């Protein structure tokens, strides 16, 4: 399931992000520093140094926005979120077809995180660059994603995906992974659909007894399928 989360960041936050990321002192490094065996051959972009003060500060703003976003919580059922990272593509840079590594070490902790979901938060307006679409292969074919600045896409980390070459301007984005309380994408999708239906029943003042029953089903399925 691909989930589009609009306006995770507001325009003030975006302006601050862009001003920081375009500053002369921004610590951009070759993106291959964090690529695995598969990625290193197909990855051609730049990343903000992972442990830099700038990456940590901007990353914390993203994490705070995620924590209070009901659509993100409902769709991802997050257990752990990998510290957000930042990348940019220009002058033909691209990222060829790959699947993200399944297990990553959380920096500085020795703890592991299982990557159930991948997330890309677009930071540059789509008309400011050509190319740079994220292509995700899912059950229904290849989905093409190029979103407004501030919008987030969530997709299964198990899917093959790539980023088209950027032929004009600069694509800047934030990316990270989520270990979900529900590992299986199909189970997570069912819970998301059920949650949406319950929210709609509440908003339209639907039958109260049905809503209570369905909410019970939601929690009992979550209890059955989650690991925390
Ligand atoms: Ni990837």
From TrEMBL:
Record-linked InterPro entries: Oxoglu/Fe-dep_dioxygenase_dom, PKHD_C, PKHD_hydroxylase, Pro_4_hyd_alph, Pro_4_hyd_alph_FE2OG_OXY
List of residues binding Fe cation: 98, 100, 161
SMART domains reported in the protein's UniProt record: P4Hc
Keywords assigned by UniProt, alphabetized: Dioxygenase, Iron, Metal-binding, Oxidoreductase, Vitamin C
Fe2OG dioxygenase domain ranges (all copies): 80-180
UniProt: 2-oxoglutarate binding residues: 171
Pfam families from the UniProt entry: 2OG-FeII_Oxy_3, PKHD_C
GO molecular function: dioxygenase activity
Cofactors: Fe(2+); L-ascorbate
Cofactor note: Binds 1 Fe(2+) ion per subunit.
Protein name in UniProt: Fe2+-dependent dioxygenase
Protein source organism: Dyella acidiphila
């Amino acid at each position: 399931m691909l989930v589009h989360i609009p306006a995770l960041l507001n325009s003030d936050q975006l302006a601050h992000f862009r001003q920081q990321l375009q500053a002369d002192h921004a610590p951009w490094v070759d993106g291959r520093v964090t690529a695995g065996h598969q990625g290193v051959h197909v990855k051609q972009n730049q990343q903000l140094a992972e442990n830099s003060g700038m990456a940590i500060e901007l990353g914390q703003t993203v994490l705070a926005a995620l924590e209070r976003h009901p659509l993100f919580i409902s769709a991802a059922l997050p257990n752990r979120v990998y510290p957000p990272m930042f990348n940019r593509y220009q002058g033909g840079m691209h990222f060829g077809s790959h699947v993200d590594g399944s297990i990553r070490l959380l920096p500085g902790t020795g703890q592991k995180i299982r990557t159930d979901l991948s997330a890309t938060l677009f930071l540059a307006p789509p008309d400011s660059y050509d190319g740079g679409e994220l292509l995700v292969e899912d059950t229904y074919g290849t989905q093409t994603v190029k979103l407004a600045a501030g919008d987030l896409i969530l997709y299964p980390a198990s899917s093959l995906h790539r980023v088209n070459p950027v032929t004009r301007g600069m694509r800047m984005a934030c990316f990270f992974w989520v270990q979900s309380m529900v590992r299986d994408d199909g189970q997570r999708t069912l819970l998301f659909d059920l949650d949406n239906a319950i929210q709609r029943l509440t908003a339209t003042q639907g039958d109260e007894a049905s809503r209570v029953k369905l909410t019970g089903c939601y929690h009992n399925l979550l209890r059955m399928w989650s690991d925390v």
